Amino acid sequence: MKLFSEITVKTTHEGAELVADILSSYSAEGVFIEDAEDVKFLEKTGKTWDYMEDAVILNDAAVTVKGYAEKEREKAVLEDLSERLKTLKENCPFDLGSLKVTVSDTDGDLWKEKWKENFKPIRFGKITVVPAWMECELSENELPVYIGSNMAFGTGEHETTGLCIEKLQKYVKPNSTVLDVGTGSGILGIAAAKLGAKSVIMTDIDECAVTAAKENLEINGVKNAEVYLKNLLEDNTVKGDIIVANIMAEVLISFAEGIKNNLNDGATVILSGILVDRKENVVAAYEKQGFTLSETEDRGEWSVVVLKWNKK
Fold first, then answer.
1. What does the alpha-carbon distance between residue 270 and residue 192 come to, in Å, rounded to a whole number?
2. What is the pLDDT of residues 167-184, one digit of tens each?
């Protein structure tokens, strides 16, 4: 039995993704968010959810992020985590809650199996996100995106992932080159490939995410996609007809000036990871750079923004 330290951070609905991003750097074995707001939203839409503790259902205010580090690394991880959470709180423009950290010991094999038992397929139009270890009966028109057991980088349940997948179904064409920036587990890039894109380039600055995305490409048998460890915006030789980025609003805003260097004329940009009250800021940043707003859509507390780029 290999012992892990289960690290739990209390935060807010708005802060959950930021805290999860920090925890994922220590937790190659997995990070997940337990958020009552997301649970209630999925119940309304009739979609399923992955593993969640009863406390999430009982306590509407509960927003916790959990990650796992090897027991022998616990002290170093907690020291670094404390500093990073302090910096995050000092610089974040919205409430992150208490950021209280608690730690307990757990058997790594047991919690991974428990998670796997409770994760169910999630359907977004034509695309169905399916656990790779599970048999799933699919209709003739469904396109499966299989995700392996490394859940540190996204399993498809978040509203922003669903919004991006649905917009990809609308905009991907057979001759499209799709760039997936901050690919994480690779769900969006794999979905684009399954939807018929000519080619897909997936990038991330996290080495563990790149490893997870490559594993998921192999599981899905996708041949027309590649994953790179790099910041795409530092390489203007790579150009696409569609860019999809599911990242926090502040990062998307910082991309606005440079992202056009990676776009073909007439390209579509699909942006999510945006809280509803930050949507106008994102749109304004891109319109300032000459982008034209095509559409926006809200889901729960989150938004997707679709823009067009035409050279002048």
1. 12
2. 999 999 999 999 999 998
Half-sphere exposure of 311 (CA within 13 A, CB side): 7
pLDDT tens digits for range 81-117 = 999 999 999 888 888 999 999 999 877 666 666 656 6
Q: How far apart are CA 287 and CA 307, in angstroms?
A: 9
pLDDT classification of 234: cutoffs 50, 70, 90: confident
Q: Which residues pair with 63 in a beta bridge?
A: 35
Nearest to 270 by CA among 305, 311, 310: 305
φ/ψ of residue 105, rounded to 5: -85, 145
Angstrom distance (rounded) from CA 3 to CA 196: 43
Q: Which CATH number is correct for 160-309, 3.30.70.100, 3.40.50.150, 3.40.50.300, 2.60.40.10?
A: 3.40.50.150
Residue-level pLDDT at 37: 56
Task: Report d(CA 6, CA 103) in Å as an integer.
Answer: 6
Q: What strands, in cross-sheet order, belong to the sheet with 31-35?
A: 31-35, 63-70, 3-10, 101-107
What are 49-66's pLDDT values in tens digits?
333 344 333 444 568 888
The whole-angstrom separation of Cα 123 and Cα 141 is 12
Average pLDDT, the chain: 84
Where in the sequence of the chain do the CATH 3.30.70.260 domains occur?
3-118
Pairing mode, strands 31-35 and 63-70: antiparallel
Residue 48 has pLDDT above 50, yes or no: no
Position 168: which residue type? Answer: L
What is the fold, at CATH topology level, of the domain defined by 3-118?
Answer: Alpha-Beta Plaits (3.30.70)
As a whole number of angstroms, the distance between CA 123 and CA 118 comes to 16
> Quick check: 288 and 258 in contact, CB under 8 A?
no
For 252-262, what is the mean pLDDT?
A: 94
